Amino acid sequence: MIQRRIFWVYFVVITSLTGCALPTPSEQARSTEVNQSVVNSHQQKLEQLQQWSLSGRMAIIQKEKEERDSFYINWRYLPHQQIIRFSHPLKGQLAKLTIDDSGALLVDSDDQERWAPSADALLYRLLGASVPFEQLHHWVLGRKTTTLESLSYHKDGTLAQANVQNQEQNWQLNWFYNQESSQVPLLPGQVHIENPALLIKVQVNQWQLTH
């Protein structure tokens, strides 16, 4: 409980946002036996995305306590820097997380700073959970990494589900897409990362891409 309170204090996620739950999209068919050339073609297109930004929402759900918090995010990715802003439509910016080659820095609306050598280390210090955040910028695009195991795909070659081990904790990832989208390459509308105790949802409302 103390760790969780510390996390919310410095992450500035307030209880007035709790009612903004993110609905889970409908289950989409997946398979481990998808034409590998289709998968490779899609992944090659994703590899070309070196700069991008997204706007959307993030939800953090404590499963055992059935406690939910959600907030708006604006995430900008460059090859050597990521900036993620957490906000509320009425209260403005709540916090800013900057990740670069020197480490991860979280600054809240009162200009209080928390730093760690990596985003994973920072979230562990604040949340007390080994969240696999370092590679999330790949996964939010639907991009494969070497750490992913037990992969399954949608019929169009996009990632559907995978597992990853992080600090001896097993996490499952699920990707959801708008199958009617004409976007090329097709990018996720939601990404879920969960273990038995915690579920993190990232919902993308808008992508901005630079090849």
Automatic annotation (TrEMBL):
One Pfam match: LolB
Keywords: Cell outer membrane, Chaperone, Lipoprotein, Membrane, Palmitate, Protein transport, Signal, Transport
Major site of localization recorded for this protein: membrane
Signal sequence bounds: 1-21
Subcellular location: Cell outer membrane
SUPFAM superfamilies on file: Prokaryotic lipoproteins and lipoprotein localization factors
Biological-process GO terms, alphabetical: protein transport
One of the record's GO cellular component terms: cell outer membrane
Membrane topology: Lipid-anchor
Subunit details: Monomer.
Similarity remark: Belongs to the LolB family.
Name assigned to this protein: Outer-membrane lipoprotein LolB
